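## retry 2 of 3
previous attempt timed out at serialization; input unchanged, resubmitting
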Amino acid sequence: MARLATINSVGGIVGPQYCVPYPVDLAIVKKVFTLTDGNFVVADANDNLMFKVERKLLSLHDKRVILDAAGNPILTLRHKVLTAHSRWQVFRGESSGPQDLVFTARTSSIIQFRRKLNIYLPYNTSEDFCDFKVKGSWFERSCVVYAGESSSPIIAQMHKKLTAQSLLLGKDKFMVTVYPNVDYAFIVALIVILDAINTRHDD
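## retry succeeded, writing output
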């Protein structure tokens, strides 16, 4: 029953306004080789701005904030320090209170942290099973998001979109396809966490 509830809840994790009955292609454009590494923008297939991501460099914790196109914060992502696995907690708005927890994400292995990410919704306090899983290679920009374990339905995929021109301009661009009726703001949050884990490894 818990696994069925997970699959049925894909469409309303952040909010129903981020769910549409057709696939959504997102273009992720990240500034590279800058002091604000971790800041990037998310646009739709027509280059319309959808989200902005800001890394809070002066925070005691590694923290990212996802803002909508109007600049309103919709999610705050906080890295939990002093844990064996890389663990992130995602809250609504700019909150950090347990009542506003949206989901928790952690690497499934200390060694293979760049390949697997397990996601747990707030009700899943035991974390005996993951509600969602991300598998793939971040370096190759080739990742798949599953509703549950890797044998479960695919809800989003990342595609490599790296060109020599983008590197010369100091930008890294890649595409993410979000499947119909899947919360695309939730998928963006997962991409931000993957980027943060990779950034921390490179620091």
